Amino acid sequence: MAVIEVTKDNFEAEVLQSEVPVLADFNAEWCGPCKSMRPMLDELAEGNADYKIVSINIDDEDELAEDYDVTSIPCLVVFKGGEEVNRSVGLIPRDAIAALVEG
Amino acid sequence: MYDIIVIGAGPAGMTAAIYARRAAKSVLVLEALSYGGQILNTPDIENYPVEAHISGFDFSTKVYEQTKALGAELVFEKAVELREENGIKVVITPKNRYEAKAVILATGSENRKLGLADEDTLVGRGISYCATCDGNFYRKKVVAVVGGGNTALEDALYLADLAEKVYLIHRRDSFRGEETSVERLKEKGNVEFVYNANVTKLIAEKRLKAIEVTDKVDGSVRTIELNGLFIAVGRVPENQNFASLVQLDDAGYVMAGEDCHTSCDGVFVAGDNRTKALRQLVTATADGAMAATEAAKYINSL
Q1: Sign of torsion, CA A84 A88 A90 A95?
Q2: Residues 22-51 of B with CB under 8 A from A
Q3: How far apart are CA A70 and CA B53, in angstroms?
Q4: What is the pLDDT at residue B129?
Q5: Quick check: B92 pLDDT over 80?
Q6: Which of A67, B108, B171, B276 is paired with B81 by a 20 to 30 Å CA distance?
């Protein structure tokens, strides 16, 4: 499964109502570390059905960023059953991303 | 066994790999995170020759592609130890052990922390080390900048145009940074200078709510309510894992001159983690070229 682009219109359905855990990547076009992390997220999203990965552009979706208190990006937030269960801020290696959502 | 192992895939390390490949040496680059390093945080590079404007990400990606095209191998593993066994250099990562005739240390530096309780957990919840990255989250809010160098002053100037109020907290009574920046800050009207003071406590409730600031002169403690704290108290080189083999200065930088030779034969250093007067993109890449050339010379002499 590819990384899904999420806006406030499909956030409820894709993230909060998801049956599998969701790794939400809050990012922006101007954020270099976010861009460097994206290929790792693409790779993790492909070939796994245990969780899904969504991308949220904080400039377009400032309400979502505000709702989830995102004040520094890249920011990865893990949701299970509609609740935040884990979070990491800053560029982290691929294995650490996987551990965040799998752990 | 490789001819050369480069530790760190920032501009210095990748340039070293380019020069080493062009000297026909086999090269392994080990990187803990992702290629690019600190320059990834720079949205617009304006002082590197050839391009008037390029983002740190685009710059890094171009250098990465150049490095790969020349045949350098890149592996994303963190080098946790460097040792010498019978004249061979051995680099240990959590997963593997690699051998080389020569090693180039290009690990760069990381943000210096204040060292306060909860500092790590509040990063992204009110604490930031990068005003240009995170400033936008604090429009019309109250923020503080800690530090006294140029980075702190530039951060405060940047934030003064966005935030409702900026406190600038410095442990001395005058700034190390440029006087013109200090004058511009004084003209801003929404910047309050807090001199001779240390941030001594972070007060949080899910996210940062306030800080305690202690006056160094009279010991009085003041609580400042705020939304964001930007920490700009310098950077620390990432050389701890190599300290047993190469000599470091008091601040932790690998001691080496322009030729990038360290105290250990066959180990070279390139970029921000070397003792030097100017830490810039252009001096990092210059170091990469020098270190690789010297490493190739060393290998040819074996």
Answers
A1: negative
A2: 32-36, 39-43
A3: 29
A4: 92
A5: yes
A6: B276
Domain boundaries, chain B: 2-111+235-301, 127-231
Residues whose CB is less than 8 angstroms from the CB of residue B152 and which lie 6 or more positions away in sequence, other chains included: B145, B146, B168, B170, B175, B177, B232, B233
Cβ contact, residue pair B35, A36, below 8 Å: yes
List chain B residues with CB under 8 Å of A65.
137
Q: Quickly list DSSP for B208-250.
A: EEEEEEEETTT--EEEEE-SEEEE-S-EEES-GGGTTTS-B-T
Q: Measured between CB atoms, does B60 come within 8 Å of chain A?
A: yes
Whether chain B has a CB inside 8 Å of the CB on A100: the answer is no
Question: B177: pLDDT confidence band, cut at 50, 70 and 90?
Answer: confident
CATH number of B127-231: 3.50.50.60
- Please identify which residue in the block is written with the tokens 């690019």: B36
Check pLDDT > 80 for residue A83. Answer: yes
What percent of chain B stands above pLDDT 90?
Answer: 89
Average pLDDT of span B270-278: 95
For residues B145-161, give the mean pLDDT: 95
Residue contact B124–A75, C-beta within 8 A: yes
pLDDT of A47 above 80 = no
Q: Which CATH superfamily is domain B2-111+235-301 in?
A: FAD/NAD(P)-binding domain (3.50.50.60)
DSSP lists the bridge partners of residue B208 as B204
pLDDT at A103 over 80: no
Strand partners, B73: B28
Residues of chain A positioned with their CB less than 8 A from the CB of B41: 32-33
Q: Which residues of B are catalytic?
A: 130, 133-134
Check: CB of residue A72 under 8 Å from CB of residue B76.
no
Domains of chain A (ranges; CATH) run 4-97 (3.40.30.10)
ipTM of the modeled complex: 0.86
Distance CA B55, CA B154 (A): 19
Give dist(CA B292, CA B299) in Å, integer: 10
| Among candidates A37, A72, A94 on the partner chain, residue whose Cβ is nearest the Cβ of B124 | A72
Of the candidates A6, A15, A22, A31, the residue annotated as catalytic is A31
Residue A31 is a catalytic residue = yes
Query: Is it the case that residue A82 has pLDDT exceeding 80?
Result: yes
Could you give the dihedral angle defined by the CA atoms of residues B212, B213, B216 and B220, in that order, rounded to the nearest 10 degrees?
-60
